[in-house]
Amino acid sequence: MAIAYALDFEKPLAELERQIEELRRIGDERGIDVNGEIGTLEDKLAIRRGEIYRSLTPMQRVQVARHPRRPYTLDYLSSIFTDFIELHGDRLFRDDPAIVGGWARLNRQSVMVIGHQKGRDTKENIKRNFGMAHPEGYRKALRLMQAATRFHAPIITLIDTPGAYPGLGAEERGQSEALARNILEMSALATPIVSVVIGEGGSGGALALGVADRVLMFENSVYSVISPEGCATILWKDATQRERAADALKLTADDLIRLGLVDEIIPEPLGGAHFDPDAAGEFLRAALIKTVNELNKVRPEKLVRRRHDKYAAMGSYADA
Amino acid sequence: MAVMAWFKKERKPRTAPRERLEIPADAWEKCESCGHVDIREKFQKALNVCPECNTHKRFSAEEYVELLTDEGSWRELYADLKSGDPLHFEHYADRLIAAQKKTGASDAIYTGIAKLDARPLHLGVMNFRFMGGSMGSVVGEKIARLARRSADKRIPMVIVCTSGGARMQEGALSLMQMAKTSSAISLMKQAAVPYISILTDPTTGGVSASFAMQGDVILAEPGAVIGFAGQRVIKQTIGQDLPEGFQTAEFLLEKGQIDDVVPRASLRETTSRLLQHMRGAKIKTTAPEAAA
Fold this sequence. Notes:
Chain A is of the alpha/beta class. Helices cover 49% and strands 16% of the residues of chain A.
């Protein structure tokens, strides 16, 4: 099970993995029992992985959040939900594949699941636009959320986007308006809403699926008003200063908890969600079931009132 | 020598010196758009709009307050709110102090209550000179409070927008101000209290993707640049130049994104008339005229 270590800081792991493979090959070729040595190296690998993943820097977390093998919305839809029926289109312009959504079951309960969708390879990424939605994607999402509300179903959104797409067509068709509308409408939908940042929480494009009763973040996900690269370009005219920007922006799950902006961190298997997607899925499933059950007990009007109060309290200022 | 003497003889002043001296240099203003030069007072009388080419130059936040309210009726609300530095973001504290010194304002928006044609109005005016009109916790809090007050007291709200977007130095806290302002404005919608947003140059990013685009009526000044993404970012993303007039108020009008483009000189009247309509609509449904 050779894992593709795609990230620079994973190099020691890739090296150990290579040694294990090499040993295995030699053992096979010469018919020697190398299990003991392999066991030692595998232990070493696990320890090293633990060390690395327990002390990720903010920028390293950004890299993990963007990992090309990280589970995406459709992966979770097939692993932890059942009976998923995808629904397409905004009824106005087109279907935007950068956002997917539809009815599904979570532990037998019907829910509406909506999420950003990145592509696994170049071809799919072109189709999915790297998870950067156009206005029609956000309008589809709102249409599905309104349907869920009508039929008293909880809404679950999975956030994973670099941001809303900055392009000509997106601007022409009202990217600002689409985001603004979702953010406003979500604040008042009379049904439980749970949002989970599963990877990249990129600015307004993330928030337009992220106004919720409970906001959860995966341990290695990030949520930020601007990408570290964008921030570094603006402040220091130098995108390579992204480490510095990632530190300054306070964009990790721990930071967001500390700032009072998210409610809960969902743990990831050591080595990141991409290292063991099934385990990540189980953690997500457990968190969703617990959260949805709690919210189901609250009357919708009360949910909405609390949601308004929750967002009203967000901010940091002095009132002299 | 002979040539020099001849040259000197020919040299005469081309304009009458007396005329030039009468008007000091700083009394003149030049339009950067068309090059038109006029007496500063003429620009001022035209609300900082070029009398020649109609270019709407920047108008200060204080001037918008004056433009949109009855004389002497403005009372500022929430003036004491001041930004913290929750992320300890490098240089943010210094930049805040510098911006406060430069503008004399506490943050990037004035909020208050006033009268417009003798009717109560909640007015918010953003200040581009304060860190590019960026929205941090204070801007978000002031707008949210004003909107909630509008919903409670049934007083219409007008926001004059100008902003580069969210205030990066407050990280995700500034992002959440989009949700905070929107949530408060949704309370106004439920209460059916009118909200007019006036977009001025420039209105982009997190501000355009929240309260700026949530008005019951959205007006924009001629030529104002309005959009979600900045032009440099779009150019980089698509790898080509942008069409002329892209993201201007006129472009948005054509694409169906705003209700109208209104010259600065008509803003006050248009706002007042719109509010009368929206107020009138409400009165009809809730308070039928008593039988005489």
